[in-house]
Amino acid sequence: MTRGRVLDRTTAELGAHARLLLLGESYPARDGFLQRVDPTLKLVGVTAVVVTAVATHNLLTLLALLVAAFGLARLSSIPLRVLVARVWLPPVLAFVVVAPRLVLTPGAPVLSLGPLSPTEAGVAYVVTFVARVAACVALLSLVLLTTRFADVLAALRRLRVPTLLVGIVAVTYRYLLVFFAELQRLVVARRARTVRNRSISFRESWRASGTLLGTFFVRTLERSERVQMAAAARGGGRRAIDVGGTHRVASHRRSNVAFATLALLAIVGMVVVA
């Protein structure tokens, strides 16, 4: 691959990956454990567990929570590779952010590397932080993988979340898909106008990439203006956005009781261990 096409391929892959993360409407239709749980109960239970996990500093508890998340994925007919694809990036980014704590935290050194020697306290902090991020992201990903987005919005409405906030979430979700599709179309159009056998210098590559991103931002701005005008044409304000507030799905009482019990046990266990 030439240097001039590295950014094209990277942009296309990022757009495709983002659309894959946002689109998961086939999994909520499967017959699984979490799919049978009421969306409102699911959202409240997972949120409570995540909030408790944020305040937990016990590594074994966080690892057990992460294993439980993958176990729930199997019970919910979610392929483990799908969950891993959604979970792996945030812990990596979290590690990059807190990596300096390995050497900046006072404590006994684990390895003798001079001023860059990692300490026991630093390693414990970084590993615990990354495990916490992985566990929380896995649990939240399960909610999105096993619940249609319309049901998530309906659950937020039933929890009395402000309608304006729910509308913003709905519009953001819907038009992120449109924006990433627009970005992929621009990349495909650029590839179609590029002569493959012609070598491209590094400066030309960056100039063309800058033009591509500039065109993308201009089209994004224009589309946002059209969306705003369309909302104003429908009356404007909150009523212009359909957030699915009355949508309901069938749930099973046994699944609801089982999920509530598991969530309560997880919260109590983390509080006791802490």
UniProtKB/TrEMBL annotation:
<keyword id="KW-1003">Cell membrane</keyword>
<dbReference type="GO" id="GO:0006824">
    <property type="term" value="P:cobalt ion transport"/>
</dbReference>
<dbReference type="InterPro" id="IPR012809">
    <property type="entry name" value="ECF_CbiQ"/>
</dbReference>
<keyword id="KW-0812">Transmembrane</keyword>
<feature type="transmembrane region" description="Helical">
    <location>
        <begin position="83"/>
        <end position="103"/>
    </location>
</feature>
<feature type="transmembrane region" description="Helical">
    <location>
        <begin position="257"/>
        <end position="273"/>
    </location>
</feature>
<dbReference type="InterPro" id="IPR051611">
    <property type="entry name" value="ECF_transporter_component"/>
</dbReference>
<feature type="transmembrane region" description="Helical">
    <location>
        <begin position="159"/>
        <end position="181"/>
    </location>
</feature>
<keyword id="KW-1133">Transmembrane helix</keyword>
<protein>
    <recommendedName>
        <fullName>Cobalt ECF transporter T component CbiQ</fullName>
    </recommendedName>
</protein>
<dbReference type="Pfam" id="PF02361">
    <property type="entry name" value="CbiQ"/>
</dbReference>
<dbReference type="InterPro" id="IPR003339">
    <property type="entry name" value="ABC/ECF_trnsptr_transmembrane"/>
</dbReference>
<keyword id="KW-0472">Membrane</keyword>
<dbReference type="GO" id="GO:0043190">
    <property type="term" value="C:ATP-binding cassette (ABC) transporter complex"/>
</dbReference>
<feature type="transmembrane region" description="Helical">
    <location>
        <begin position="43"/>
        <end position="71"/>
    </location>
</feature>
<feature type="transmembrane region" description="Helical">
    <location>
        <begin position="123"/>
        <end position="147"/>
    </location>
</feature>
